[in-house]
Design goal:
NACHT domain-containing protein; alpha/beta; P-loop_NTPase; 13 strands
């Protein structure tokens, strides 16, 4: 008795409906490429692919499987329990595991509802730095009892704070897919990871993705259409795959900026984290050891605008004798302040007070952690903390004290402690990190000692991924601050390859940061061998290039005008080329043609490189084509 026939979703041989040249023979014969039909329907779809697309056939199969599960009493969701109890997991850098986390009831409920809606594919959690985005996601994953109404097969977590390379992220994701589904084999040694995903996404086991810290890959300019858009187009294309392709993936994103590229995407939801309520803030203070009355804790919460990180700094800064009188401590710190002062001023004042309340060793730990964007093991701090205190090595007693201090700082929530393999690793919250980095740079002797350590022993410091460039950038900033331009340029030439590293490793923000630091120095000596004016033009051109790349067009325009004011003759070719690039990026194609023509004329005066002539011709042609298409 015939109970049906197996039809191919994608054709079995060339010329067959929906044949896919990129599939292997084993994939064409796989059950994943099959659809069980009656003989008549089998004949229809094998003869005519016009009304029966791949997506439609997979949707037919999905609905049939749902009905079969219902008839058999098999649930189409995970049991109601914390997600991590049921799923294979890959944590490429840990999320925050905070014992003093205060649950945001409304926000947690909203996320749970979106998880239960199989039509939702992307959830963005947006909020200012320190609002508790990562902590909320970590608590939701580890602690919340939720029903997951989608047949997901695993959970993958990636922090772009630690590693912002999108190709690395996509490759590691595909390796995890191979672990979840051993029948998958992606040939990552020869294929582009995004191309693999685009070809085979509907055949992959659905996952829950958590992508933390996407603001490092977004435009930060708060004006204009570019705000919040992705710097890396690959990331945008991948997220659009998740949103549009009919497979029940779920991607949870955290960022300080709105996800502009996904604002009108079906199945994309956004949750903006606002300040804590007075009740939640008072509870957070109590969890962090602040005693006294609930009314006092509420008053502190109101003054500090319900910001979770600032409340933690307040709790960490309060002396033991004032724990029962938090209002008195608030008045002591902000004795000449006002409740209407800008929030940034309140944060800065509180961080300065907190820093002054630490002893030298605790301050050295935070300054040491501030150097690194990725978590580092205790052994790293054993190397660098004594240098910042002015000692040569960590003695046995001091090693024990280091552990005690780390535990105390981790308990406060200002230092995050997680696991990497078999050892604990530590990191600063980004806002705390930036503050203590500036403190370190301002202390000449300490910053020079750190420079020596960073440049002579970088491999001993346990740094991972793109963060390997961070110690060198910090060293350059410290050297430039101390007016040791020769030392900074030595790093630029030998370690940054005259800027090539920023391009080849896809680090535009780091490139801009370096060139801006150089231009902040009033007098640049002739260390590149071409004269003082040409050397300064070299660094100004680098800053312009990265400003355009990052969409910071106003800064780029100012630097271009500055360069044109200092250049003459053939030396105006470079700034005119930058002006052409800038105009093209802003859609001002006629201006781009004019600037490209000016660059070509400047080159023809002699002295400029032939490459500039070629670039001018290319930009002119591209702009003319754009004008033609518009008209």
């Amino acid at each position: 008795m015939s109970i049906g026939e197996a039809a191919h979703v994608r054709g079995r041989k060339p010329g067959a409906p929906r044949f896919d040249h990129d599939m292997s023979d084993s994939e064409r014969r796989s059950i994943e490429n099959a659809l069980w039909l009656c003989r008549n329907c089998h004949g229809k779809i094998d003869k005519d692919d016009a009304p029966y697309s791949v997506e439609k056939l997979y949707e037919v199969r999905r609905k049939a499987e749902e009905q079969a599960r219902l008839r058999q009493g098999v649930p189409d969701s995970l049991p109601a329990a914390p997600l991590l109890n049921h799923l294979p997991q890959c944590w490429c850098h840990e999320t925050t595991n905070d014992e003093t986390f205060v649950r945001r009831s409304a926000e947690s409920q909203t996320i749970g509802e979106w998880l239960g809606d199989s039509a939702v594919r992307i959830v963005s959690i947006i909020g200012i730095g320190g609002a508790g985005k990562t902590a909320l996601v970590g608590h939701w994953l580890r602690m919340e009892t939720v029903e997951c109404h989608r047949a997901v097969r695993g959970l993958f977590y990636w922090s772009f704070y630690v590693n912002k390379d999108v190709d690395n992220f996509l490759r590691r994701l595909l390796r995890f897919v191979e672990e979840v589904d051993p029948t998958q084999d992606f040939h990552l040694d020869r294929d582009d990871p995004l191309a693999i995903l685009e070809r085979r996404f509907t055949k992959l086991p659905p996952l829950i993705l958590v992508l933390d810290g996407l603001e490092v890959l977004q435009e930060a300019v708060s004006e204009g259409k570019a705000y919040g858009t992705f710097i890396d187009a690959k990331l945008r294309d991948f997220l659009q795959l998740v949103a549009y392709v009919g497979s029940p993936w779920l991607c949870v994103i955290t960022s300080r900026f709105p996800i502009t590229d996904l604002e009108r995407t079906p199945g994309a939801k956004a949750l903006r984290l606002d300040r804590l309520t007075l009740e939640e803030g008072a509870q957070l203070l109590a969890h962090n050891g602040v005693l006294g009355t609930d009314a006092d804790r509420r008053e502190v919460t109101q003054y500090l605008e319900g910001h979770p990180l600032v409340l933690r700094v307040f709790a960490a800064s309060i002396p033991r004798e004032r724990r029962i009188t938090p209002r008195q401590h608030l008045l002591h710190v902000f004795h000449d302040g006002d409740a209407n002062d800008p929030f940034r001023d309140k944060l800065e004042r509180l961080l300065n007070f907190y820093s002054a309340s630490l002893d030298d060793h605790q301050r050295a730990i935070l300054q040491g952690l501030s150097i690194f964007r990725s978590p580092v093991p205790k052994s790293t701090l054993e190397i660098i903390a004594p240098v910042l205190v002015g000692e040569r090595v960590v003695q046995e007693r001091e090693a024990f004290a280091l552990v005690v201090d780390l535990n105390r700082l981790a308990t406060s929530g200002l230092v995050v402690r997680d696991r990497r393999g078999s050892e604990d690793v530590y990191a600063c919250h980004p806002i705390v990190r930036d503050h203590f980095r500036l403190v370190l740079l301002a202390e000449g002797g300490k910053s020079q000692a750190a420079v020596d350590m960073l440049t002579s022993r970088p491999d001993d410091l346990g740094i991972e991924g793109a963060s390997t460039i961070e110690p060198l950038l910090l060293a350059c900033e410290a050297l430039l601050l101390a007016r040791d331009t020769r030392g900074a340029f030595e790093i630029y030439l030998t370690r940054f390859g005259k800027g090539r590293v920023f391009l080849t490793r896809g680090l535009p923000r780091e490139g801009k940061r370096f060139y801006d630091a150089v231009l902040a120095v009033s007098a640049i000596p002739t260390l590149l061998g071409r004269g003082r004016d040409l050397d300064r033009a070299h660094f100004r051109n680098g800053a312009i290039y990265f400003d355009i790349l990052l969409g910071e067009y106003a800064d780029a325009a100012d630097l271009i005008q500055d360069e044109l004011g200092h250049a003459a003759g053939s030396r105006t070719a470079s700034p005119h080329l930058h002006a052409a690039r800038l105009a093209f990026c802003q859609g001002e194609y006629a201006s781009a043609v004019d600037s490209a023509d000016a660059a070509i004329r400047a080159k023809l005066q002699g002295g400029a490189r032939a490459l500039l002539h070629a670039q001018g011709l290319y930009l002119r042609l591209k702009s003319l084509l754009a004008l033609g298409l518009d008209t």
